[in-house]
Specification:
Elements (H helix, E strand, L loop, with lengths): L2 H24 L27 H16 L3
Helix pairs in contact: 1-2
């Protein structure tokens, strides 16, 4: 993987973490989505390749990067 791709993935991982924290902090469990237009998609069975979600892919990348660099 070249340095540009690694930098892009790192930035994407950071952005995803920030958005995840903001979403958890701002959302009340009793407030429904304004437009639940993606409701049907959440009912699909998981794909077979295991990387059906961005979060899972980024977690895998983080673990592999930790193993490669030896940093925690």
């Amino acid at each position: 993987m070249d340095s540009f791709s690694e930098a892009l993935l790192s930035e994407l991982q950071h952005t995803t973490e920030v958005l995840k924290r903001a979403n958890l902090a701002d959302r009340s469990p009793n407030v429904p989505d304004l437009e639940p237009c993606y409701q049907e998609q959440t009912r699909r069975p998981p794909s077979r390749h295991g990387l059906d979600s961005l979060e899972h892919m980024l977690d895998d990348y983080t673990e592999k990067r930790k193993e490669y660099t030896g940093k925690y």
